[in-house]
Write a sequence for this structure.
C-alpha cells in the first residue's frame, strides 16, 4: 500500500488498476444498456457518447432519453435531469474533505468534481481514508478517469450491439448495478454511522418512492440520513 | 448538422451543465465543512442513505427488464451475493457474479424467458 502511493503518478496508476476490474465491468454493463437504449430512441451515436461523457450519471442519462422520446419540453427535461443529480451535492460535500489536500490546484479539484459518480464515490469513501491524504486526489482521478473512459467505450459497444444479447444475459446486465452497490456498500461498511445510514436509507428509499417518485431519492436521503444521524448520536451517548 | 440534431445537442449540453452544477457547488461549499464536524457526519449520513435508498428502490420496485424477475429472487440473489463476498474473503468479483448468476438461474426456474 505505502509503495503504491509514494508519488502522485504511482497513486494515479493504483487508481486505474483498482478501477480496471469489477468496478469498470459493472459500469460497462450499465452503459452497454444505455447505448442500446439510445439507439432505440433515435439518438445518433455521438449524442449518446456525449450524454455519457457530459452528464456522467446513469439515472440522469436515462431520464434525459426517456423525456426526450416522450416529447417533453426541453426546459422540463433539464429540470428533471438536474433533480436526479441533486445527490451529487451531499456526495461531493462528503467526498471532497476526504480526497482534497491544500497542495492540489483549484482547477484540478474542479475537474475532478466532474468525475464524481456513484461508483467512484462509494469506492473512494471506503478506500481513501486508508491512504496518505495528499495521494488521495491523484488516486481518485486515476480511478474515475478509467471508469469514465470505459463507460464511454461501453456506450458505443451497446449502441452497435443492441438486440444481439439474449434475454437472460440482458437481465444479468441490468441486475449487475444494484447487486454491485449492495455488495460494496453493505459488505464493506466501515463505521456504525455508515451502517445506520445505509439501513435507514434502504427502508426510506422504497417508502418515499410510493409517495413521490420524482423527489423520492432526495427526500429518502434527507429523512433516512437524519434519522441515522440521531440514532447514532443517542447510541454513542449511552455508552459514554 | 440539421436543426433537429442541433436541438438535441443543446439539450444534452444543458443537462450536462445542470448535473455539473451540483458537483461544482459541492466543491465550493466543501471548504467550509470540517471533516470532523457534526455537520460533515450528517451530510455523509444523507449521502449514504440516498444511495442506499436508490439501490433498494431498484431492487424492490424495478422498472423495465428487471421487473420481469420475481422480488423474492432478487432479494435472495442479494443475500447470496453478500454471503459469497464474505466466504471468499471479500472478493468483489465472486460476490457480484454470484448475485447475477442466481437471478438469471431463478429466471429459468420461473420460466420468465419463454
Amino acid at each position: 500500500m505505502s509503495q503504491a502511493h509514494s508519488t502522485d503518478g504511482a497513486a494515479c496508476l493504483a487508481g486505474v488498476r483498482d478501477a480496471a476490474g469489477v468496478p469498470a465491468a459493472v459500469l460497462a454493463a450499465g452503459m452497454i444498456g444505455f447505448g442500446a437504449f439510445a439507439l432505440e430512441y433515435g439518438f445518433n451515436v455521438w449524442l449518446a457518447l456525449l450524454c455519457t461523457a457530459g452528464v456522467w450519471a446513469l439515472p440522469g442519462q436515462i431520464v434525459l432519453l426517456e423525456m426526450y422520446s416522450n416529447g417533453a419540453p426541453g426546459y422540463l427535461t433539464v429540470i428533471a435531469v438536474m433533480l436526479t443529480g441533486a445527490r451529487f451535492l451531499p456526495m461531493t460535500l462528503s467526498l471532497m474533505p476526504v480526497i482534497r489536500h491544500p497542495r492540489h490546484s483549484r482547477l484540478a479539484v474542479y475537474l475532478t468534481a466532474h468525475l464524481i459518480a456513484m461508483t467512484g464515490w462509494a469506492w473512494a469513501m471506503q478506500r481513501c481514508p486508508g491512504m496518505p491524504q495528499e495521494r488521495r486526489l491523484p488516486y481518485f482521478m486515476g480511478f474515475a478517469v478509467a471508469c469514465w473512459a470505459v463507460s464511454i467505450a461501453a456506450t458505443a459497444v451497446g449502441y452497435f450491439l443492441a438486440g444481439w444479447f439474449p434475454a437472460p444475459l440482458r437481465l444479468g446486465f441490468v441486475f449487475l448495478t444494484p447487486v454491485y452497490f449492495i455488495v460494496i456498500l453493505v459488505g464493506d461498511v466501515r463505521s456504525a454511522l455508515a451502517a445506520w445510514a445505509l439501513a435507514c436509507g434502504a427502508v426510506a428509499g422504497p417508502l418515499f418512492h410510493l409517495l413521490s417518485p420524482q423527489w423520492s431519492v432526495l427526500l429518502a436521503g434527507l429523512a433516512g440520513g437524519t434519522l441515522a444521524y440521531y440514532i447514532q448520536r443517542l447510541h454513542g451517548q449511552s455508552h459514554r | 448538422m440539421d436543426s433537429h440534431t442541433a436541438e438535441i445537442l443543446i439539450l444534452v449540453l444543458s443537462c450536462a451543465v445542470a448535473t455539473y452544477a451540483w458537483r461544482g457547488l459541492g466543491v465550493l461549499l466543501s471548504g467550509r465543512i470540517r471533516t470532523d464536524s457534526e455537520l460533515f457526519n450528517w451530510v455523509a449520513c444523507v449521502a449514504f442513505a440516498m444511495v442506499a435508498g436508490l439501490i433498494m428502490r431498484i431492487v424492490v420496485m424495478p422498472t423495465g427488464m428487471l421487473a420481469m424477475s420475481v422480488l423474492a429472487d432478487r432479494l435472495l440473489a442479494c443475500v447470496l451475493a453478500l454471503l459469497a463476498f464474505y466466504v471468499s474473503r471479500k472478493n468483489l468479483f465472486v460476490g457480484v457474479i454470484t448475485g447475477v448468476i442466481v437471478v438469471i438461474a431463478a429466471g429459468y426456474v420461473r420460466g420468465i424467458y419463454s
Summary: The helical segments of chain B are 3-30, 38-60, 71-87, 92-110. Chain B is about 75% helix and 0% strand. The two ends of chain B are 43 Å apart (CA to CA). Chain B touches chain A through 75 residues (CB under 8 Å).
